[in-house]
Amino acid sequence: MTGFLIIAVLVLFAVAVWQMKGIFQLSQIKKGDDSQVANDKDNRFNGKLMLWFLVFFYVFLIYGFWEWTRVLLPEAASEHGKDIDLLMLISMVIIMFVLVITQFLLHYFAFKYHGKKDQKAVFFADNDKLEFIWTIIPVIVLAALIIYGLFTWTDIMNVTEDEDTLVVELYAKQFTWEARYSGEDNTLGEANVRFVEGINTIGIDASDPNSMDDVVTRELRLPVGRKVLFKMRSQDVLHSAYMPHFRAQMNTVPGMITQFAFTPTITTAEMRQNPEIIAKVENINQLRNDKNVELAARGEETLDPYEFDYLLLCNKICGASHYNMQMNIIVVSQEEFDTWMAEQTTFGETLNP
Amino acid sequence: MSTEAHNHTADHHDDHGHHHKDTFITKYIFSIDHKMISKQYLITGLFMGIIGIAMSILFRLQLAWPDKQFTVYEIFLGKWGADGIMDPNVYLALVTIHGTIMVFFVLTAGLSGTFSNLLIPLQIGARDMASGFLNMVSYWLFFLSSVIMIMSLFVEAGPAAAGWTIYPPLSALPQAMPGSGAGMTLWLVSMAIFIASSLLGSLNYIVTVINLRTKGMSMTRLPLTIWAFFVTAIIGVVSFPVLFSAALMLIMDRSFGTSFFLSDIYIAGEVLHNQGGSPVLFEHLFWFLGHPEVYIVLLPALGITSEIIATNSRKPIFGYRAMVASILAIAFLSTIVWGHHMFVSGMNPFLGSVFTFTTLLIAIPSAVKAFNYITTLWKGNLQLNPAMLFSIGLVSTFISGGLTGIILGDSALDINVHDTYFVVAHFHLVMGISALYGLFAGVYHWFPRMFGRMMNKNLGYIHFWVTVIGAYGIFFPMHFIGMAGLPRRYYTNTAFPYFDDLANINVVITIFAIITAAVQLVFLYNFIASIFYGKKAPQNPWKSNTLEWTAPVKHIHGNWPGAIPHVYRWSYDYSKLNKAGDDYVIAGQDYVPQNIPLQDNEEEMSH
Ligand code: HEM
Ligand SMILES: [Cu+2]
Ligand SMILES: [Cu+2]
Fold first, then answer.
1. Which residues of chain A neighbour B574 with C-beta distances below 8 Å?
2. A262 within domain boundaries
3. Nearest by CB to A138, which of B367, B476, B489?
4. Which of A126, B80, B173, B374 has the smallest C-beta neighbourhood within 10 Å, fewest atoms?
5. Which residues in chain B are closer than 8 Å to A88, comparing Cβ atoms?
6. Between chains, do B457 and A42 touch, taking CB under 8 Å as contact?
7. Residue A219 lies in a domain
């Protein structure tokens, strides 16, 4: 399908070049008017093209929504994510509505009123009523969006910690992520980059009793249905913890602890069964297989088949390998989480094996 | 300063008949004539634009075909493109310098510098800028900063690569990336000089507009171009110094061991001594300029289109007072919305709410402007010259790009699209492409005024139509890959199999980008060829009302050979009918230039 689009584009381009030739010839044959100011013929021609452009615009819009919505993120895997998605949908509908109408008016007027020799423009300089109307309509629509948006935002960002909240530290450095769980006491020990040394890769303060039961891991495992509060740190430059499937993002800032909280609602296993994800994974594996044929022909290493996982990506430019600063997120049931957690070595154990 | 400026021009008032004995140097190089300086800005800006766009093609190639080798990398990037493979650091450097060049050098200096210089004196009826000398200094500082920026490309460890936003600590620590060494030093020096240039220019524009308007040119009779340039200059004066201080503090952090933006850092195996600084502070300072910068880029383009749309519609601009009010509202609001770039920076979420509120407020004057443009077309007699087409194109991309701002400005929604390609799509349409269209529109429209010749219209049409399709072709698909969660500033997306299905879309984007960049050559050819071989321009080719068209085609020092024309009306009396309503005010002529006194048969408007 994309191949088709590319061909279509190339054909269009060829047509444009060919047209160019035509225009050159025209301008050479007709020596009559070389003022280089648009005449009636130019006005008619370009007016018509305005309509054709409008057609292109709508077709492209429809093509985009038809063909490319399948690559979008699947349903939100967090509680607050659903609110964001709904707000997004509402905003999108409004935007598309306004877009379609205003682009129509703009290009249609450009076509309809293209200059003609005997046409008179209307001297229309002001109309308070009209201007009032199109000031007040955006005001009302935007006010509604703002109010809705702000409620959603406050809900998301007002983190209230309770008994049940799982506190996890996300630690960023060029170009990896590490996670620290607070252990039995559900309290993270103190930490500072000044303690980074040897196996203590994230600078935990060993003199703080709270840190002994902390658990440092290279993957992020979360129990479903339980609120997670992320405390984020960075040891070198800005990074950003971006977890698109959970509609979550927060920068990590050296010298500062930032936070973000959400409640995962769909386990990784469940998400892999989501029809959208199944289709997406199938498509991706198809593409990878096609590529493997090529790679094999050249005697190069082939790509592994792909299986879906939630991702934590770095989303703030942080250096050469910014593009590959990632960590898998695995959402499991509480029991699975507890079993996994029991297998991990605590910070205390790593210090005194 | 303004009294001095007054005296200077007063001289000119008295002896306008004379001719300076210009040598080549004083005429073409160290010129103090605003018309020549404007051409210098334009040509320097276009030259930088060629570099900036060429860079975008290089990194687009990399994004579309990350596993292919391209010899062009080796040709242009040398050791960083060895064997046709692009180095990840140089990818970031290309993106960074592309952004810097396009925003500051092309669309701030190239656009506003060119047309403020050309039009402010000519449209308000002044012999020159308040201070021709400062104006010259301003241009040469800009030139110097361009040279330094280009020099930085040849630094051993590579040019600045921390993104055009140069957030520390990345930009402060050479250990963090090679580009943050000498490359970043040159970037900062270049920008500091650029800011000095911009401030000198802006102060000059402000003083000129306030003091040197000809008799009868009240503020409410100013063409919207001048309003836009004037307000732009004010925003520049308010916000650029803040960037200057941020750059200064960054220089100190880098070289003198201060800790404005650095704290608790462990890098390259050691802990740095810095304690107590905050990178978030830098973000605040940067965006306090950075957001107004968007309008510094955009307002002149909007001013230019207002003028061009009115002239070519043969109609007054609809809602002149509302247009001025929106310019002022946008200018004011633009200084209190910067936080929308920082919703997830770790700043207090309550602040996020405030910035959401102010940001969505700014949508209102923007919407008013868009509606007013559309209404100006309604029942017009549209002369579809290339300049007019680009102006219509600007309104189109301004709407498309502006609408997605409603999503980005909404803090809750920004969480998930922040720093993705959705943002790249948004700002390119609303600021990059719109302002670029404004630049093109301005060049096509005022080329006769600048060079005394006409540009070829058919080449202009080709340029326009391929560009509009191409620009949407590039940036429309980017919304989708952004909403799919693809971060920007990624050297390749192959590290995430999850993004494999976006590869095709990236190919589409790159093909459109190559076509679009290629068609700019048509413009370039037309521009250069027309300077030398274009058809000789008549005095007022577009039958326009503004004063610049009353000056002779051949440039003279002081602009008008005789007395400066006086002004008796606003600049939008197009297709105005006489009292009887049976003909135009001037029979058979659908426009009344500003220097024509009120006629007996016409009703005076409140303007
Ligand atoms: C042929 C036209 C252009 C193309 C194909 C293009 C393409 C791109 C792309 C793909 C990026 C994002 C790269 C990334 O984040 O990884 C980018 C960045 C950028 N572009 Fe363009 N662009 C074009 C013209 C312009 C114009 C006219 C402007 C003027 C405002 C502009 C300003 C920027 C800025 C400010 C950035 C951000 C740089 C950064 O991330 O530090 N671009 N461009
Ligand atoms: Cu990172
Ligand atoms: Cu902004």
1. 121, 123
2. yes
3. B367
4. A126
5. 407, 413
6. yes
7. yes
Given this model, what pLDDT does residue A1 score?
47
Is B27 a pocket residue for ligand 1 (Cβ < 6 Å)?
Answer: no
> B424 in ligand 1 pocket by Cβ < 6 Å?
yes
A288 in any annotated domain? no
- The model's pTM is 0.92
Cα A126 to chain centroid, rounded? 42
Residue B564 belongs to a domain: no
Tally of structural domains, chain B? 1
To test the pocket of ligand 1, the residue of B58, B92, B95, B100 to mutate (highest count of ligand atoms within 8 Å of its CB) is: B95
Nearest CA to ligand 1 atom 13: B489
Domain assignment present for residue A335? The answer is: yes
Give the one of A72, A102, A126 whose C-beta lies nearest to B480's C-beta.
A72
The pair of structure tokens assigned to B363 is: 């949508």
- Best residue among B51, B56, B57 to mutate for probing ligand 1's pocket (most ligand atoms within 8 Å of CB) is B56
Looking up tokens 């003198």 gives B256
Question: How many Å apart are CA B364 and CA B341, to the nearest integer?
Answer: 19
Within 13 Å of residue A195, how many CA atoms lie on the same side as its CB?
A: 13
Per the listing, tokens 């297989």 go with: A289
B589 within some domain: no
pLDDT at B453: 94
Digit-coded pLDDT (tens) for A181-236 = 988 888 899 999 899 888 888 889 888 888 888 999 999 999 999 999 999 999 99
ipTM entry: 0.91
Res. B105 pLDDT band, cuts 50 70 90:
very high
Give per-residue pLDDT as tens, B191-228.
999 999 999 999 999 999 999 999 999 999 999 999 99
- Chain centroid to CA B333: 19
State the CATH number of the domain containing residue B514.
1.20.210.10
Pocket of ligand 1 contains residue B60 by CB under 6 Å: yes
Based on the number of CB atoms within 10 Å of its own CB, is B339 exposed (0-12), middle (13-18) or buried (19 or more)? buried
Instruction: Tell whether B129 is covered by a domain.
Output: yes
Instruction: Return the structure tokens found at B142.
Output: 């800009």
Q: Do A249 and B381 touch (CB under 8 A)?
A: no
Helices B349-377 + B386-408 axis angle, to 10: 150
* Closest atom of ligand 1 to CA, residue B102: 29
Q: CB neighbours of B261 closer than 8 A, spacing ≥ 6?
A: B168, B169, B172, B249, B250, B253, B277, B278, B279, B281, B282
A7-40 exposure pattern, b = at least 16 Cβ within 10 A, e = fewer: eebeeebeebeeebeebeeebeeeeeeeebbbbe
> What residue numbers bound the domain in which A198 lies?
166-270+305-351
Helix (H, G, I), strand (E, B) or coil at A149: helix
| Residues A36, B541: C-beta atoms closer than 8 Å | yes
Looking at the structure of chain A, the number of domains it has is 1
Going by pLDDT thresholds of 50, 70 and 90, the confidence category of residue B9 is very low
Instruction: Let me know: does B574 contact A120? Beta carbons within 8 Å.
Output: no
Range of the domain at B253: 34-550
Per-residue pLDDT of chain A (353 residues; tens, 9 = 90+): 455 555 665 666 666 556 555 555 555 545 567 889 988 999 999 999 999 999 999 999 999 999 999 999 999 999 999 999 999 999 999 999 999 999 999 999 999 999 988 888 888 888 888 889 888 999 999 999 989 999 999 999 988 878 888 999 999 999 999 999 988 888 899 999 899 888 888 889 888 888 888 999 999 999 999 999 999 999 999 999 999 999 999 999 999 999 999 999 999 999 999 999 999 999 999 999 999 998 899 888 888 899 999 999 999 999 999 999 999 999 999 999 999 999 998 988 888 87
CB contact under 8 A, A72 and B276: no
Answer whether residue B2 is part of any domain.
no
Tokens 């199944």 belong to which residue?
A278
